[in-house]
Amino acid sequence: MSLPAILLGFANDSQGAQPLAELEREQQALLDLFSGKMEPVLLVQATLDRVRSRFNDHPGRIRVFHFAGHARPEALLLEPDTEGFSTAYAEGLAPFVGQQGSVALVFLNGCSTRAQVSLFLEAGIQAVIATVHQIQDDTARRFATDFYTGFCAGKSIRTAFDEAFSLLNTRVSRPEEVFRRIGLENQQDLSRNPYELHLKTPAAGEIRLADWIEKNPGTPGGKTYNQQANTIINIDRIENANFS
Question: How far apart are CA 224 and CA 38, in angstroms?
Fold first, then answer.
C-alpha cells in the first residue's frame, strides 16, 4: 500500500517573540498519530530552502503541508537560512505550494494566519485551516492533535475539524483562555472559534485519508512508494523525543 506524505514544518524563530515551549510536544504527538497512516516528512528547523528541498525530494506525493510556529498575518516565520532570510511571505509561498500539484490541505498553525487563506485557495489548495487571532501555544498543539486524530481515524476534513472545535470548547470555560495574552486587548470577537476551515469547494470538506491512499501516485515507471510503519524521514534535529 502506498502511503500519502505530510510535510511537517516546525520553526521556533521568535524574531523577538516568546519561544514556543509546546512545539516539540506537537511534533511528537503528530509523529505518533501518523505512524502507519501517512509518511511524515519532518522539518524540525524549517527554512525556505529545506521546504523547497523536501517538495523536490517527494514530487507529487505530499498531500498535506502543516506549519507550526510563529506567524504574522502576511507571512510564516521560518528559521533563518544561510542568507539570513526567515520570513516566508504567503504571496509567494502559496503559489509555490500550489505549484507542487499534490497538496490538498494546508494547516497554518501560527498566530493570525487567516489573511493568508485566500492566497492558498487561489493557488489551488482544496482546504486551508488557519487562525483568526493570536493563539496560545498549548491550544495550538491540542487543536492540531485533535484534528489529525479524527482525520487519521478516517473522518473527513470537515468532520475532523468540527470535532476538534467541539473538544476545544469542552476544555475551556472562557473563550479568551485560548488566545495569547500578549496583545489580547487588541483582539476582536473573542467568542469565535480561534480556528477556521476554508474550503475551495464544498466537496473539499469531504476529503478523507482513504482517498489519498487509493489515488496516491507511484514513482515514474509504475513503481510505488512502500514505506514501513514508523518511517520518519528527513529529520534535521529533534531532541528528547521518544520514538518507541
Answer: 14
